[in-house]
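Quick log. Single chain, no ligands specified.
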Amino acid sequence: MPGNAEGTQEVRSNRLHHPHSRPHLLPKTPNHLAPIQGRNVPHRLQTACFRRDQYTCQRCGHHGNPGDGTLHADHTRNRAAGGPNHLDNLETLCTECHKPKTQREAKAGKGL
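-> predicted structure:
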């Protein structure tokens, strides 16, 4: 779709609107694709990580299903230590493996 000088592009909103109305101007990253507050990994990147790892925990082998909430896309090198938010720095972990890893990293970060 063509862009304009303000760095926006014409995108149809998901709202119902009059058939003769013009498309709304939205930023290039629509709100439904923006990271959720508190989420460290954007949804599209998380999904790419899960697919690459075939919805399987890379530590214990637990196999999850899309949307079941048992898997996390975890930063191999955490963000606080300068790890990038890139697919090659992510691994799929189940909740049981992710929680202790996060706790160890938090403890180490506090100098405990």
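Helices lie at 43-52, 95-109.
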